[in-house]
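Dig into what follows:
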Amino acid sequence: MATQQETNARYIYSYFVNKGWTPQAVCGMLGNIQSESGIVADIWESGVGPGYGLVQWTPSSKLIDWCNSQGLDYHDIGAQCARINYEMNNGIQFAPSMSYTMTAQQFIKSTESANTLGLVFLANYERPLNPDQPQRGTQAEYWYSLLSGNTTPTPVTPTEPSKPVTQNTYTVQSGDTLSGIALKYGVTVAQLTSWNNISDPNKIYVGQTLILKAGNNGEQTQQKSYTVQSGDTLSGIAAKYGVSVSQLTSWNNISDPNKIYVGQKLVLYSNGGGSGTVVYTVKSGDTLSGIAQNFGVSVSNLQTWNNISNANEIYAGQTLLIYNSNGGGGAKVSYTVQSGDTLSGIAARFGVSVSQLSSWNGISDPNKIYIGQVLSVYTSGYSGGGSQSYTIQSGDTLSSIATKYGVTVAQLTSWNNISDPNKIYAGQIITV
């Protein structure tokens, strides 16, 4: 009687041969699937993620979101085969490498040996940190011998799925980049820089030991999921679960944070670095307001933390520090809503975001607050966050007041809704 692994292998072989793949190409892929998942469709990496399925898609949303959009069950082996075929025919995942210049279409039609194509798929599709895995070629040859019927196969000891993320640390190797390590272990560059106190993500060195998970007691990163509801926004979901928009987009392979849809399943990781210090490197086209929105903080906070006087003057390659309190990282302040208050105005006053205030106070509609309502505000320790008042005197300037109280002009203008910092008047009462 055939084993479940062999039954699944025969299904995959039949599926792709009928799609026009050569037997050698299918078996080259099978040799890799054997190492990745044991040729099991419904399987999580290390039991919890972040990889999932036949080829251990990381993040799993690459598979799950696509299957949902196609009306397919992502647990099903046929649905996963359809996703692989879609990737190979649409320039996704498979790319020529230094070792093998073969394209996806060349791979599909290749009649080179299954052993060779197993190594091609390893280098051009899987791209693991450890490329020295000749057994994948041997496994590919085994499946070719068994499934093509050309020769009598030599039995190969079945392999268990690889479990690379059970480790908590990684030692940097020659040629490594932080983005490459992040991709391999299903985390973000921002998390790696935060967990390892790295100020410049472009400066890591051979032999450096990196922490791969949050916490210092070997705690595991737990995977959860959330189904998008009507009215949800990515920033609101991020605030609710104490993570950043950038983490959600990274974990779920979302290119546009404004495009999520009802019923979409999002992957969430607890202990995922939602609080603490994040180092972000400015990219071409970035704006401070865009970065602030992605990380759920205010522009004035970003200016304060990074000594930026003009929010419009940032440059590609600039390194920004971002502090996330998420309801537990700073001092708690209570604020009583006054007549004329808005949640956005209160958020600006305390240097936090509307989504954070909504999350901390269980507010579902930020437009519905009432006079006398007591709000909890968690200050990060860098934004002022107090409620001290100052009456402007003749001769005062906003910059002199900022210097006196150890804050920035940007904070004063934000907390007091001042559009022109040069237009203040004697007798005006401001928050400092």
Q: What stands out?
A: The longest strand covers residues 276-281.
